[in-house]
Each structure stands twice: as structure tokens, then as C-alpha cells.
Prior knowledge:
Layout (H helix, E strand, L loop, with lengths): L22 E14 L2 E8 L2 E7 L5 H9 L5 E10 L14 E12 L16 H6 L1 H4 L3 H23 L3 E2 L17 E3 L7 E3 L5 H9 L4 E9 L11 E10 L3 H20 L8 E4 H8 L13 E2 L1 H4 L5 H8 L3 E7 L9 H12 L7 E6 L2 E3 L10 H8 L6 E7 L2 H18 L9 E5 L4 E4 L4 E4 L26 E6 L2 E8 L4 H10 L4 H14 L7 E6 L1 H8 L30 H7 L12
Helix pairs in contact: 4-6, 4-15, 7-12, 10-12
Amino acid sequence: MEEAFMQRTVTCGALRASDEGKTVxxxxxxxxxxxxxxxxxxxLRDRYGQTQVVVDDxxxxxxxxxxxxxxxxxxxxxxxxxxxxxxxxxxxxxxxGEIEIKAEDIQILSQxxxxxxxxxxxxxxxxxxxxxxxxxxxxxxxxQDRIRLRHEVVRSIREYFYKTDFYEIETPTxxxxxxxxxxxxxxxxxxxPGKFFAxxxxxxxxxxxxxxxxxxxxxxxxxxxxxxxPRGDRQLEFTQLDVEMSFVKRDDVLALMEDxxxxxxxxxxxxxxxxTFRRLTYHxxxxxxxxxxxxxxxxxxxxxxxxxxxVSTFGLFxxxxxxxxxxxxxxxxKTEGKDFTRKYITELEDAAKIYGAKGLCWMKVDGETLxxxxxxxxxxxxxxxxxxxxxKSGDMILMVALDNWKKCCNSMDAIRRKLAxxxxxxxxxxxxxxxxxxxxxxxxxxxxxxxxxxxxxxxPQVEYLDTLESDPGSVKGDLYxxxxxxxxxxxxxxxxxxxxxxxxxxxxxxxxxxVAQQKFGFLLDAFKFSPxxxxxxxxxxxxLCMILAGQSSIKEVIAFPKxxxxxxxxxxxxxxxxxxxxxxxxxxxxxKKRTTK
Length: 597
């Protein structure tokens, strides 16, 4: 008959020198096991920390035998007495480092198979191996710390909204499929064969309906689903803080978020944020930093090269200017230990080409002269270049010329990001900024019609209401993104609350009235019953925690993420289901499309 386990009286991170002399029971995992002849040292670990356990040379033969049986990650119970370590043996790296437990009894609660990797502070195993054995990966201190950080962030967010009179309301997980930009995950209905639910890409329509319902201020920690290719800061399923408010304008939402993040950062990280964040218009951000999610922890600002490009004899520059194209530049500073070799310039050029650049033009500043690259085309006009750019000796002037403004900006952004990383220009800390005045529409060249740049429920700025149909490309929306350290942390807008205006937006996006009623009828029906002006925003919880943890992948702050192949190696999902289940749902699998993966 199995003996009852010795239940812990204290955790592995709790004991201090003041506990000397107490008899305690610890439960945990064997983190390290050192056998020094007659004396056995065991570091026992749980969520709360580690405690050193010692089996002394005067221990009973039975206890000595149990200690010899132990292996790494065995789950055990230890009974013993707390004693102070000698001063020379105190471990300042452990919270419990002043004490140890003189073992009186050890009970093996469960054994551990051969480990696929070591349980260490940080797991450097391959990602597929980490995800297959995620239950072991999560034991590593780094993952334990990051999941704890995530818990603290979510706790702090909830506390803030409870204090500011918001209701936490859950919206449904099984909804109707509506076009929202990404592919829906579809859920077949057994009760209604041939019909499907969708998993929500966001609670967008439901939170707007909550405003129509008069709840005024709502939030939830919402699970969202998008059937898209995973990458570092995206997953098939993710978590966002969803916020909506009635009777607000843009500045009210921005002020709320500034206050929220000020509260969370102080509460969780003990970091004071500025009371307000810098604001950039979409065009300012693109022209100055090359993208609409700029990292402001370093400079490397982008500028218009036309004032000095026009004095060159370079045909590409002259043709670009004559065709109303765009030439942009940035100055890469001379950096100790980093040479701007031809090989490195090629690497920068390759990065820019990914975003549409046809090539990279460059010149090196050498005192009052310019050398290399396109410098020969500025012969006699070096002073104009140096005065315009402010470049110093040893700096590099890097330029891209394109007819397409957005591609030109994005190409310079790629150069800027690579330089910042390679030259170690990124300063520690957290740099927030707002991006405002986004275009409301963008043209889909492939399908030949306008579509919403964010989503179709965003309010146009008032001054554009009369020209929506005649000039969609110039319309600015009442949209705003919150950017942190080069990541889009949150996106939001003031919403449309007028049914006729909403229909106009649908029509511009190639959705006629009958189709709009079919796809969004429940929202349009609600809008017939006096909706209030309202707006909201949705920060990404995974992305926030990733940035706070200093990671580059949200998988590092999610307990059970999907891998890069959009699958879960641990539970082998997605997987096959039995034919009986398919029959109940009225589904057939096309054998030609059946994957063998």
C-alpha cells in the first residue's frame, strides 16, 4: 500500500535565518544533486525558490540509501530541521542562502524519465524540442519568471479598470463569420448541419453593441483567433486587452491608456513613465522613421535627400526627381569597432531590397570630402551635401531612390533597424509613442477596390465626410496606434455610430447594402436604436509581456504556444478525428487535400 505523502509545511523559497531550529517539510523537484562522499547536497526547487537540503554523514543507512536513489527532477518530500550555514558557506545568490535543511526523512513522490534537456535558468534547446516537452520547459526559471510577470501584468490591468469604474464583460467565443481582414477559424455546427460558427478575431462588433446597450465603459482580457501564418510577435490564438467607452473622443482614449500603462509599469516594474506620450502623425512617422511603428530608443532619423540630390549629376537621382519620385537618406554614424566595408554595405542593401529598393546609394564622409559610392556625382558640391546632412568625418550617407513613397520609406526603415542593431545604438528602456491621422482606406491593387486600412467601423475625421466617395485616398480616419519599442502595442479608433455613414463605408469597401445586411445585419440593426458615440482600443497582452520580459517572441510569455509550423508538438494538434465525428457534423474530407504531416 502506498504511503501517504508528507505534505509541505513551507515552500522552498520561504525559509530564512530566523527560522533556525524549526522542523519543516518541503515538497519539490531535485534541481541539483551533489554527492560529496559521506555528505549529500540536494537543491530542492518549487515555484517559490530553492532550498539546500543536506544528508549528513551521521544520517541513517536508510536515509543515505534514499539520497543515493535520487536523480534530477525527481519529485520528493523532505522532512528536516532548519540550520544556519557557516558564514563561509552562505550563498548570496539564493534567497534562502543563509540556511539549509538537515534531512531527517526523504520520500520519493514520483520518478523522472531521462530528461530531453537540462532544467536550467534559460533553456537553449531547439524550439521544437522545447514545445514538445513544454511541461519541462515551463519548469525553467526563465519561463517561470515570465509567466509570473504575465500574471502580474494582467492582475495590475484588472485592478486599474476595477478602480476606474469599468465593467468586465465576456463576449462570445462562438460567433458568426464576418470579414475582418484575416481568415476565420470555422467551427461546424452539429445541430445545424452545413452551418458554421467562427472564433472571434476580436470582440469588435460585440463591444460596440455593448455600448449600444448602455454599459458605457467595458473591458475584458479577450482571447482572439486568426488563421494566419505565425511569426515572432503573432500566434494563431492570442490575448488582448479589449476596451470600449461611450461618449468619448480620441484624446479621452489616449489619456486613459497613458494612465493605464503608467499604473501598470509602476506597479509591476517600478518604472515611472511620462504622463503623456509623444504623438506622431502617420506621415510624420513614415517620413522620419520609415514605418508606422517606429522604435524611438535611437535616432537615425530619415530625411528628404532632394535638396542636395538635385545638385548631383547622377542620372537615377535626376530621373527620380523629374518623375516626382522620392529620395531619402540617413546618416550612419562612425562607430568604434564597426567598419562600413563593401560587404556590410551589401548587407544593408539586401535588407532594403526586401522592401522594394532597387539598390542602395552611399557616400563616406572623409573630412570635408566625400568618397566611394555615388560621391563622384557630387564633385564640387560636397559642401552642399555636408551642410544639408550634418554628416561628420567617418559617417556614411545612405540613400534610396524610388517612385513609390511607401516602398522608399519602408526600405529606409529596414536600413535603420539593421544599423541600430549592428551598431548597438538601441538604448535600454521603454519608448512609447502614438501614431495618429492614419489613412482610413488603402487601395487593393489585386482586387481593384478600396478597403479599410484598419477596419470598416472606424470613424472618418469630420472634415472628410463630404469627400468620402469622391476621394477615398485622402481621407484620414479617427484612428490611433500605440507603439512601444518598435512594436505596435495597441490599435484603436473612434467608431462609426451612424447607420447611414456605416453603409457608405461598406459601399466604398465594395460591400453593397444587401451584402452588408447579410454579413453585419446584427450590428446595423442595433444601430437603428440610438447608439452613442463611442470608441476604444485593444492592446496586445502577449506583446506587452514580451517587451517587458526583453524577449523577441511572444512564445516566451505564453504557457502553451503554437510552433512556427502552426501546430503544437506537445499534444500533436491539429490532429485527425474519427469518421464518426465527421459524420455527425455532415463533413467529408477531400482526400486530395488530406495532409500527411
